[in-house]
Amino acid sequence: MSKLETNTIDTISGTANLTIGGANNTGSTTIKTNNTDAVTIDNSQNLKFNSGFGSVATAYGCRAWVNFDGSGTVAIRDSGNVTSITDNGTGLYVVNLTVALTDTNACSTSSGSNSTAGSDNRCVCATVTSTTAVDVRTGNAASGSPVDIVVGNVAVFR
Predict the structure, then answer these.
(1) pLDDT digit string (tens) for 13-61?
(2) Rounded distance, CA 103 to CA 105, Å?
(3) What does the alpha-carbon distance between residue 24 and residue 30 come to, in Å, rounded to a whole number?
(4) Distance CA 65, CA 78 (A)
(5) How crowded is the C-beta side of 65, counted as CA atoms within 13 Å?
(6) Same domain, residue pair 94 and 115
(7) Is the pLDDT of residue 74 over 70?
(8) pTM more than 0.85
(9) Which of 40, 59, 78 is the last residue of a domain?
């Protein structure tokens, strides 16, 4: 086994790939800090890291997320992997993904409010219905009737 120690790995110009392990690597690759496992990529290409909780565990990435204003004309405040939101009527939205999921076995989570101050919470239900879309339904927390939301948040994990 070879050992390389360096403080910096940098490209001369442009972009370059950094390969650790090479074509013959059949095991996992681990990066250590202070002689403790910090990041591991196993032979199934799962990324694992120690985020200060004492062990290296698989990271399950957020595949898409959005913060939007669903009142009036729908407006995305900020997002990742979301191209647009379709307004299908009062309390009915479709979050459209930029890069498709591999399947529909993802977990979606959501929250919403009728105010940017966070008051008057709403019921928000987000469901992954296809590899490119998440259906979102919003309602009044007390009555359950459909209502639009001022602050909508949706995240998809896989």
Answers:
(1) 666 666 666 666 667 887 777 777 788 888 888 888 877 767 778 888 8
(2) 6
(3) 16
(4) 8
(5) 10
(6) yes
(7) yes
(8) no
(9) 59
